[in-house]
């Protein structure tokens, strides 16, 4: 439909945008390159201003079930001696908590909310943006299945929102000579293992 808003990318940004626009009364469609959404990523922190937005979208209760309402951030020596700490979230006086959780869990929570509220028929997996044409009345977007190269459909919308990440197909079309992202050479490894709380269960220690 011409009045729909097309969202390219079913990551955290795209899914949040879809829920927000839907709540505002807009019709939306979400397009994602991969053929299945999987809970990939690492541990992240949703700070109070982000949790406020999740609260507005009605997903805060679900996130609180799968995350930790962090009360304190602390730094310690290798011997466990406290260097410095500060309160976080509600403990710091905010109206909303800080929630620490896995990035993939956040994405899947948002994805489930999109499927429930907007409908699975408006989420198109295995749809990689191949190009688009814009005019005074909207945009026509063309999609392919990136695995096979087969045409995956053409959709007409009022607007197109690019939420397709660091390797954005939309950005590559707008800035074809820009090149890829520049890597600064740093590699960061993060992981978690089960263990008893070293201070209290709501403490995050880098």
Which characteristics define this entry?
FAD/NAD(P)-binding domain, 30% strand, 13 strands, three-stranded antiparallel sheet, 206 residues, single chain, four-stranded parallel sheet, alpha/beta
Please give the structural blueprint.
Elements: E1 5-8, H1 12-23, E2 28-31, E3 43-46, H2 48-56, H3 60-66, E4 68-70, E5 72-76, E6 82-87, E7 98-102, H4 103-117, E8 123-124, E9 128-135, E10 138-144, E11 151-157, E12 159-162, H5 169-174, E13 203-204
Parallel strand pairs: 1-2, 1-12, 2-8, 5-13
Antiparallel strand pairs: 3-7, 4-7, 5-6, 9-10, 10-11
Could you explain how this protein is built, in words?
With 206 residues, this protein is an alpha/beta fold. The protein has one domain: FAD/NAD(P)-binding domain (3-Layer(bba) Sandwich), CATH 3.50.50.60. Helix content is 24%, strand content 30%. The protein has five helices and 13 strands. The strands form four sheets. The protein has a four-stranded parallel sheet with strand order 8-2-1-12. Strands 3-7-4 form a three-stranded antiparallel sheet. It has a three-stranded mixed sheet with strand order 6-5-13, with no helix packed on it. Strand 10 and strand 11 form a beta hairpin. Helix 1 packs parallel to helix 4. The N and C termini lie far apart (48 Å).
